[in-house]
Design brief:
Elements: H1 29-41, E1 67-68, E2 83-84, H2 92-103, E3 116-118, H3 120-126, E4 129-134, H4 144-152, H5 157-162, E5 164-167, H6 171-183, E6 187-191, H7 197-205, E7 209-212, H8 217-231, E8 234-235, H9 242-258, E9 262-268, H10 273-285, E10 290-296, H11 301-308, E11 313-314, H12 331-340, E12 343-347, H13 349-363, H14 373-385, E13 391-396, H15 406-416, E14 420-428, H16 433-441, E15 446-452, E16 459-467, H17 471-483, E17 488-490, H18 495-504, E18 514-522, H19 527-533, E19 540-546, E20 553-561, H20 567-577, E21 581-583, H21 588-591
Parallel strand pairs: 1-11, 4-13, 5-6, 5-8, 6-7, 9-10, 9-13, 10-12
Antiparallel strand pairs: 2-12, 3-4, 14-16, 14-17, 15-16, 18-20, 18-21, 19-20
Helix pairs in contact: 2-9, 2-10, 4-6, 4-9, 6-7, 9-10, 10-12, 13-14, 13-15
């Protein structure tokens, strides 16, 4: 399986059957909206066979889809390299209805027209006009209130009187709670028991009734749908509904008013609601503007689904950018993306962290990890294709950063921007060798250094970070070290190395039948002890490394002594726990430190 990766040159063509003139009553609300459309589009209007009113369709997410692990091909796509989608253009009658509904949306009862800000430092560095759409400036620090309010404001009085319900562990929950408060409608939000308290409190402060249920989002959603059916509550999906999509599409109208002649708009993709709405507007008003989605490598559900031609559910999802950590994209949003968007780009977690630092450098604002995904993708795209002198827009989707996650962001930011490098050097342990090593590093400034000699090895291992101003300086330094019999590896983009290696220097040992596994566990009191009881004393535990990263889930690195004859039994026990895990014995960076 291979991706076709190239810069698209196509644009959406006008459908011949949709160029008829139609008569419009320009005194009516619909007529005024259609006139606005004509003025923006600069051409005749497509006829609409649909009734010109807001859609009330509510689709319950279909969670049945093929389950796959993220394929190995995805990391082979460079950050910023476009994975091309060949859009079909969609149904013209449905799209004109979308346009009318977006323009008529009442989202400004709760939302502001967020600013489109020129990022001067990013623009100078990349050689483009780099604009950031600041949805983090909304009252709930996220764009999500738009879709929730748009859908809920279109419910009947009877539906509002009964109340609404949703499942969410993040920004959608706050959007529904705020909409419920404004519409005087009781909102019930089912959140996983593992949800950080700061997010639970934020929803309650907006008047939402919080129910904590289940260990995962899927369990919370299943329970919410059950309550919806039993209690007659309208379910407000986070993305897979036309009303939600149209509310998010109002961002597109604002961008179009604020800036013209845009090369591309970059949109973060989780379930696909935001990009569907923005694309539905732009592909009618400014069809030559590319609409490009951005996902992390570890949560590339839309990229993979578009490539396969059908929705696929990821077996494991990286939750570093938790706001876009979606295992299965929406059925409706997937169809819209197939019809309208130009493609997807992927970014690493260190690139997302570097984007957070870029925004902080611009104006001392801190985005959440998912809020910076589109900025990371836009910057990587410009660098990959050497885009110059174009107008680039990236949507900053939110700023609900969990404070405890900042330490990991700062660890990754310098590496993601290639301002810093993480290196491992093997050095023959003899008098004067460390001094020689320091001299060979030369003018590159150390930012971190860990050195440990073990009697079991002929060579000592040095793990260190250095500041990097020019890539050529780093390459020259590595060449000097290698030619001086100091074998050196660049581990800058090896996340296992970044997360664990500095804590394990000096911890190498020659242990028979040792295996290493990285498990993803829910952040809940007692989970770690229950997890360990599942393996011990059946198998000897040789290593454990854990750190709270501020996510709903946490990662723990474990070492076990498992004879080859017992591997099937071990895997069966691990699979039975229901926690995602990876065997890390074949990670080169890991083995040079821990295993001998």
């Amino acid at each position: 399986m291979e991706f076709l990766c190239l810069a698209p040159t196509h644009s959406f063509s006008t459908n011949p059957k949709s160029t008829k003139n139609i008569s419009i009553d320009r005194t009516s609300t619909t007529g005024r909206i259609m006139k606005m459309y004509q003025n923006m589009r600069g051409s005749t209007v497509r006829p609409s066979a649909l009734p010109l009113k807001m859609s009330r369709i509510v689709t319950v997410p279909d969670i049945s889809a093929p389950v796959v692990s993220t394929p190995a091909i995805l990391p082979k796509v460079d950050p910023g390299e476009l994975v091309v989608n060949n859009p079909t253009g969609g149904d013209p009658d449905e799209l004109i209805q979308y346009l009318v509904d977006i323009l008529a949306s009442p989202v400004y009862d709760v939302a502001i027209e967020s600013p489109l800000e020129l990022a001067k430092k990013l623009s100078t560095r990349l050689g483009v006009n780099f604009y950031i759409k600041r949805e983090d400036k909304q009252s709930v620090f996220s764009f999500k209130l738009r879709g929730a309010y748009n859908m809920m404001s279109n419910l009947s009085k009877e539906e509002l009187a009964k109340g609404v319900i949703t499942a969410s562990a993040g920004n959608h929950a706050q959007g529904v709670a705020l909409a419920g408060e404004r519409l005087k409608c009781k909102s019930t939000i089912v959140m996983p028991e593992t949800t950080p308290q700061i997010k639970v409190d934020a929803v309650r402060n907006l008047g939402g009734h919080v129910i904590l249920h289940g260990q995962t989002f899927d369990e919370a959603q299943t329970y919410a749908l059950k309550l919806s059916e039993n209690d007659g509550l309208k379910y407000i999906p986070p993305f897979d509904d036309p009303g939600v999509i149209k509310g998010q599409g109002t961002i597109g109208t604002e961008i179009n008013r604020q800036l013209k002649d845009i090369h591309a708009v970059f949109v973060p993709v989780g379930g696909g609601g935001l990009i569907s709405g923005v694309a539905a507007f732009f592909k009618q008003i400014a069809p030559n503007t590319k609409i490009i989605g951005v996902e992390p490598y570890g949560a590339a559900s839309m990229t993979l689904s578009l490539h396969e031609g059908h929705r696929v559910k990821l077996e494991n999802v990286d939750t570093f950018a938790d706001g876009v950590a979606v295992a299965l994209v929406g059925e409706y949003t997937f169809a819209k993306c197939q019809e309208l968007i130009d493609g997807m780009v992927l970014v690493r977690n260190d690139g997302i962290s570097a984007a957070i630092e870029d925004v902080y450098d611009e104006g001392r604002n801190i985005l959440e990890t998912s809020g910076a995904v589109a900025i990371a993708g836009a910057a990587a795209y410009c660098e990959f294709y050497q885009i110059k002198n174009e107008n680039i827009v990236a949507i900053a989707s939110g700023a609900n950063m969990d404070f405890s996650k900042l330490h990991k962001v700062t660890e990754l930011a310098g590496l993601g921007a290639d301002k810093e490098a993480l290196l491992a050097t093997f050095m023959i342990e003899q008098q004067g060798s460390f001094k020689t090593f320091v001299e060979l590093v030369g003018s590159l400034k150390f930012t971190e250094l860990t050195y440990r000699f073990t009697s079991e090895r002929k060579n000592a291992l040095i793990l260190y970070r250095v500041d990097v101003e020019e890539k050529s300086d780093l390459e020259e330094m590595i060449e000097k070290l290698n030619s001086s019999d100091m074998s050196t590896l660049n581990l800058s983009h090896n996340e296992l190395a970044v997360d664990y290696l500095k804590h394990l220097i000096g911890g190498s040992a020659n242990i028979s039948d040792e295996i290493f596994c990285e498990f993803t566990l829910p952040e809940k009191v007692g989970t770690l002890s229950t997890f360990i009881e599942a393996f011990s004393p059946r198998w000897n535990i040789t290593l454990c490394r854990y750190r709270d990263q501020g996510d709903i889930n946490g990662n723990v690195l474990m070492g076990f002594q498992v004879p080859q004859s017992e591997m099937d039994e071990f895997k069966s026990q691990a699979n039975g726990l229901g926690y995602p895990y990876n065997l890390d014995n074949f990670n080169e960076a890991f083995n040079i430190v821990v295993a001998e």
